[in-house]
Design brief:
Length: about 110
Amino acid sequence: MDDGRGQEEYVRQVMEAYRKTPGTMGTVRRADRMLAVQLYQRGVAVSIVENAFVLAAARRLIRPTDALPLGTIRSLAYFLPVIEEVGMRVSQDYFQYLRHKLGQLTATR
């Protein structure tokens, strides 16, 4: 995969999006960088990874108010199943809707 970005830029973008995702620690470990390199080598587009972050964060935030709190996400590996799911061609409109909802939810918490 090479959509005009090199591996280093790909990893930078994935790590930046990961850090900003609600529910994560906001820090990047060596294992996270190595997994991002693997995603690059597998040809997973940055947009798929970013959409997976959005989908997973929305699922974690849109829960019953009386549900037990979830722990902090400590690894990029947490998102692998969602990355696979998003790679199956989910509508971009759905991710735009989720981004809007996340903005609303994180502004009120």
